[in-house]
Write a structure and sequence with these properties.
The chain is an alpha+beta fold and about 375 residues long. It has ten helices and 20 strands.
Length: about 375
């Protein structure tokens, strides 16, 4: 059937990159299995998961450093399984930046341009390097040596070297892993601003959930070489499809039990000691099946009035705007409660050993089938 879209609109609607049933095996080792993912133009997408989950393998297949054992990789609608990295419209920023220590900042940034055939004239290369340095907020740093730069500045040089070739996709392989927490946060903000100003697709690999949640338009959660859920940070946080996703994206408390009833969009779980926890379930779970109730720490209130579950405060961690309490219930065991400064001031605060009561809104729990 013919498309009703004009060519320009159709080009915008075509995914910038796709993995179609892509797998990568190293002998008997399965690094990635049956990956299906459509990546939108101009989006910031993150692959998130623990070490060995397949996220870096997926990135390397998009970059061309690995060829899929089966399935296809598409860029701009074209199959590129056998296209080498330097012929793909992508550039990659590596975890340790891979800068040449014997070259100046300007020479590092210009390296890719000088490998082009036909090679641009020197004046054009110099203009492109200066523009790239302006973009990453390092004007005038061209003559510097790499070893004279801080970690954050080196990362910016690596970004400048990657964007100077004007790629359609920028691939980022845990580029902030070596930075301290404050600098990492600053660079996260800069990367977001850079992505918006350039309008190109960024694809990030990270094991840091906070990094993925704060930066991404969409997150692709991986486990054991497979994609388990793709969605916006808010969707993954509020509506995880499994305990694995709920546990990996943000903090959550898990209370195991059996499904007591499920009807009219409301599911009730019988937890330890016969405590009934009501909530919603992403998928229907039959009565009698084992399942888990998930409650985020910020959904739970901690107070002195005799309302809810009687608990004992085990530990208290001050986090600035919030205080995180670890509390213990006779049947449910230990779980976390996140209390705002305002709510804590109203209650007077708690110390380890204090008795308290924990409660949450009716139906706030998410009832998840066991993985």
């Amino acid at each position: 059937m013919e498309s009703n879209l004009n060519p320009a609109t159709e080009a915008r609607e075509t995914p910038i990159a796709e993995l179609r049933d892509a797998s990568k095996h190293y002998g008997a080792v399965v690094a990635a299995q049956g990956l299906n993912l459509s990546i939108r133009r101009g989006e910031f997408l993150s692959f998130l998961g623990p070490s060995g989950c397949g996220k870096t393998t997926a990135l390397r297949m998009l970059a061309g450093f690995e060829s899929p054992t089966s399935g296809d990789v598409l860029l701009d609608g074209q199959r590129v399984n056998d296209v080498p990295p330097h012929q793909r419209p992508v550039n990659m920023v590596f975890q340790h930046y891979a800068l040449f220590p014997h070259l100046t900042v300007a020479q590092n940034i210009a390296y890719g341009l000088r490998q082009r055939r036909p090679r641009p004239v020197e004046a054009e290369i110099s203009r492109a390097v200066e523009q790239a340095l302006e973009t990453v907020r390092l004007p005038g740093f061209g003559p510097r040596r790499i070893w004279e730069m801080s970690g954050g500045q080196q990362q910016r040089v690596a970004l400048a070297r990657a964007i100077v070739n004007q790629p359609k996709i920028l691939l980022l392989d845990e580029p902030m892993a070596a930075l301290d927490k404050k600098l990492r946060r600053d660079m996260q903000i800069e990367l977001q601003s850079l992505q918006r100003s350039l309008g190109i697709t960024f694809i990030l690999v990270t094991h840091d959930q906070e990094e993925a949640l704060s930066m991404s338009d969409r997150i692709c959660i991986m486990r054991g070489g497979r994609i388990v859920q793709v969605g916006s940070p808010r969707d993954l946080y509020d509506r995880p499809a499994s305990r694995y996703v709920a546990d990996f994206v943000g903090k959550s408390n898990f209370f195991p039990g059996q499904i007591a009833s499920s009807a009219a969009g409301r599911t009730t779980l019988a937890a330890a000691g016969g405590l009934m926890i009501a909530g919603t379930a992403p998928v229907e779970i039959a009565a009698g099946r084992t399942a888990t109730a998930s409650l985020r720490p910020e959904q739970i209130a901690l107070h002195r009035r005799a309302e809810g579950l009687p608990v004992t405060v085990v530990n208290r961690i001050f986090l600035g705007e919030h205080t995180e309490y670890l509390v213990r219930h006779t049947n449910l065991g230990e779980f976390l409660v996140l209390v705002s400064r305002q709510a804590e001031a109203a209650e007077g605060g708690f110390e380890p050993g204090d008795p308290a009561h924990a409660s949450w809104p009716e139906g706030a729990a998410l009832i998840l089938a066991d993985d």
